[in-house]
Amino acid sequence: MSNPASSLEEAPPQETPLQAKWTYEPAGTRHLGIIDLGSNTARLVIFGYVPGQYFRIEDVVRERVRLSEGMGESGVLRAEPIKRALATLKLFKLHCDTEGVADIICVATAATRDAENGASFLARVQAETGLTPRILSGEEEAYYGYLAAVNSLTFGDGVVIDIGGGSVEITQVAERRLLRGQSLPLGAVRLTERFLKSDPVKKGEFNALVDYLRAQLGQVEGLGGAALVGMGGTIRALAKMDRASQNRPDHLHGHRLTRATVDRLVDQVRALPVARRSNLTGLSADRADVILGGAVGLQTIMALGGFDACTVSNQGIREGLFYERFLAPADPPLLDDIREFGVQNVMRLYGGNRGHFQRTRDLALSLFDQLTELHGYGQFERDVLGAAAWLHDVGVSVDYWEHHLHSAYIILNVPLPGWSPREIALIALLARNHRKGGISLEGLEGALEAGDADRVEQLASLLRLAEYLERGKTGVVEAVRVHQGSDWVQIEALTNGDASIEIWEANRNADLFHKAFARTVEIVEGVA
Amino acid sequence: MSNPASSLEEAPPQETPLQAKWTYEPAGTRHLGIIDLGSNTARLVIFGYVPGQYFRIEDVVRERVRLSEGMGESGVLRAEPIKRALATLKLFKLHCDTEGVADIICVATAATRDAENGASFLARVQAETGLTPRILSGEEEAYYGYLAAVNSLTFGDGVVIDIGGGSVEITQVAERRLLRGQSLPLGAVRLTERFLKSDPVKKGEFNALVDYLRAQLGQVEGLGGAALVGMGGTIRALAKMDRASQNRPDHLHGHRLTRATVDRLVDQVRALPVARRSNLTGLSADRADVILGGAVGLQTIMALGGFDACTVSNQGIREGLFYERFLAPADPPLLDDIREFGVQNVMRLYGGNRGHFQRTRDLALSLFDQLTELHGYGQFERDVLGAAAWLHDVGVSVDYWEHHLHSAYIILNVPLPGWSPREIALIALLARNHRKGGISLEGLEGALEAGDADRVEQLASLLRLAEYLERGKTGVVEAVRVHQGSDWVQIEALTNGDASIEIWEANRNADLFHKAFARTVEIVEGVA
């Protein structure tokens, strides 16, 4: 007798490379490869996306090409770096071919831009790899960094900087629009090769670097403002070092690097010979030699601009190039509401019954609104509750059993740009506690603030009631009307059919509400 | 200017309910709802599946109908339980309708089977809900429980028991085939109503129950063997109570309930009045009154059969019914290799580049095989390494960044039937450590045995090398040939093209191998 299970290893018929992947993406997902040949590293990022609706990073390959090595002030790309770059780009192209990604954007930045043999290098790239790279001008580099920042962080006014291997881009932003962007040849590799020739760094070399940066950056107009956002390898490395020392579980993206921290890290790195720097947690051997050049650049910008902190963006020109495609034909290509988009993006990946989540959310927010006098919360808590209503079942994808735990893990780890670590912890805790039993804070106390245990309890009790009123996922409870007495609450469930089980279950599980609000609660049936 | 992002909330055109779910399932996934109307609880489970290849539980709704309440020995279903059952089944049907699940299997077991008004009850079910329930005979109940057990646990010989509310099924299994299955009217609700009428339970009542069970179960032929597998609500509850007291992180499925534990739990529950029993962690209020009747049944079977332990199955007749459909037309519907199926099943959900995983696995296992004299490991370790090669990137679904951590979480939490807690911890640790840096054991030491830290280090070093040799995901390294000296190892990478980057990266990241095996290692190019 044939057992279908014995054919497990056979691929479905007529498979293309993409079909060979049993994927879990939404239907109609497209794929785009973005290759960025920088002065220090070359990166390939493969995005899966549905235009305007959903996207995810599927794969990243990063190689330390150090294309600008040995350029000095000559403006000439040297033979060995060119050889490495060509081998890397061939690998990236072959990788895309193997994965069935035909749509590729390839850009080259400072080193290639400034090289007198840049054009011939790119001609070789085209001939030997089939890729057609586009050189980004300094202003374009600044533009794409800006796009990434404004589409992934909630700030509207300030300065965006990108410290790369060859160049530094500085962009002024007002009301989320780009005012002015420029590129300066002050990248980490370039400065290291020019100024920091000894190992360990000599005091005189260091001072010469500082003076040079002050002079160059001092000429930048409008260097100041409400917020400083930083991206690029140097800044990501500094953030990793900071997070490692604090043992923080939160995301790199959105991390705040204070001025005091940057000063401390500069002093720490400066005192060590290169070989010992990579002992510092968060600093890879790849970057240990050049980080000082970049870090002093950041330090100088913060001092000149009067910035107390730099918010780190994990997204950079690759994401900027992606957003341009993703939101086309919008101009400028800006997401209206990055926080809402982030939540919807996660939901689109994890799927499930969207109607149920919508109805649960509507009921929960209705309870929230009608009970405002009782809880006294505002928009902050309402946003958290709404997001939790959308996301509380994403963990079913791991396993139905204990899915509240899996949902909490996913919420804590999935990209949710624009939400603070505290908000993400609260949303995760509402998901963790949406089913039954007492409240657990899951070891997340470090991300919370005073009063948040009560917040979790009260908001979770509303989410729980909403969830039970939607137990059958049929929409039988269309709305809720809240009545209050001195020490009691009555919730009228307005139904369009027989909701006896929903109401019975809601009453049976009203204990958390009772504990959270110190009110007895009765859920009764009404007619919609 | 129009911004596509503003149309986020709009559903794609021409949506059916299923398309309304932006799902992450493999293309061609079907959906099946299975409704099980037991004597104690009624359950709806919705499966998503691709026949023979992949499946997942998408949703579960459980209601405590207590259909057999008040039946006594009358054989008559009473009015209130019937009313509850009809309301519940209507909710289940409406739930399936709302989710677009048209394919429904509905079965009824002991209470309905034994009732003189069972047929008229089912006629009402059909008339009022549209469901067409099928009464399972005792032998069929035993058969489906057996199917679930042999398709989800690695045992070939022994006894499978299912302790439900109305009946207990006992099945003898030899070489994974069903020898003999029967159903006895000894379910937890039935015995409680007949024997345990006082609260707290009187000594005389308890002894009468024990004597009755010994007499009834003593008549069962062939009650003994290599393994005892148990399923059903009572056994799951006992396992939850045991796990809670040990603070164990591992899965319910596959949990071993020792005889000493069962005896202890019986004594513990017996001493408490019903109202205080649900203070015991793991015991829900729903079950507190009837658990003793079921637990004494398990205790008696273990004593009569000479079983030291009972392995808990989280899967039961619902999964058995599902496997019959899933593996059709196979007869009997048995998975060939449940461990391999489990791994493939997880991979099919999480997708990714299957060819890359296959090649990484082939390289890792080739290194393992060629280095056997050096590490001295066997099939156990080889299986763990192979599974880790398949699953190490599942975490990319959560976020590309830090995906090794997400992979470890998923592996620890996703259903992987047939793998022991120690194996799952080892696989998760290989995924956790497949990229770079030193070995982390992630707080999983409790699941490991002596020597496992070395195992993780050595196996992870092989996985890491294989991963780097597949860095471009292009298959350029087709095979590896290992040469050994007294204190060195040379790995010849047999390539079909330019693998300079793969080999360079492998050499750069060979430090873990060096540490793990106390050998220097060089990776060189050869021609395939």
Topology of helices and strands:
Two copies of one chain form a homodimer.
Chain A: H1 17-20, E1 30-37, E2 42-50, E3 54-63, H2 79-98, E4 104-108, H3 110-114, H4 118-129, E5 134-135, H5 138-150, E6 158-163, E7 168-174, E8 177-184, H6 188-195, H7 203-217, E9 227-231, H8 233-246, E10 256-258, H9 259-270, H10 274-277, H11 291-305, E11 309-312, H12 317-326, H13 338-350, H14 354-370, H15 372-375, H16 379-391, H17 403-413, H18 421-432, H19 452-469, E12 477-484, E13 488-495, H20 500-508, H21 511-517, E14 520-527
Helix pairs in contact in A: 2-4, 5-12, 6-11, 7-11, 8-11, 9-11, 14-16, 14-19, 16-18, 16-19, 17-18, 18-19, 19-20, 19-21
Structural write-up:
2 copies of one chain form a homodimer. Chain A has 528 residues and is of the alpha/beta class. Chain A has 3 domains: 17-135, ATPase, nucleotide binding domain (Nucleotidyltransferase, domain 5, 2-Layer Sandwich); 139-318, 2-Layer Sandwich (Nucleotidyltransferase, domain 5); 339-527, Orthogonal Bundle (Hypothetical protein af1432), CATH 1.10.3210.10. Chain A contains 21 helices and 14 strands. Chain A has helices at 17-20, 79-98, 110-114, 118-129, 138-150, 188-195, 203-217, 233-246, 259-270, 274-277, 291-305, 317-326, 338-350, 354-370, 372-375, 379-391, 403-413, 421-432, 452-469, 500-508, 511-517, and strands spanning 30-37, 42-50, 54-63, 104-108, 134-135, 158-163, 168-174, 177-184, 227-231, 256-258, 309-312, 477-484, 488-495, 520-527. In chain A, the strands form 3 sheets. Chain A has a 6-stranded mixed beta sheet, with helices on both faces. In chain A, helix 16 (379-391) crosses helix 18 and helix 19 packs antiparallel against helix 20. Chain A is elongated, with a radius of gyration of 27 Å. The first copy, chain A, starts with 16 loop residues before the first helix and ends with a strand. The model of chain A is unreliable at 1-22 (pLDDT under 50). The interface between A and B is large, with 83 and 85 residues.
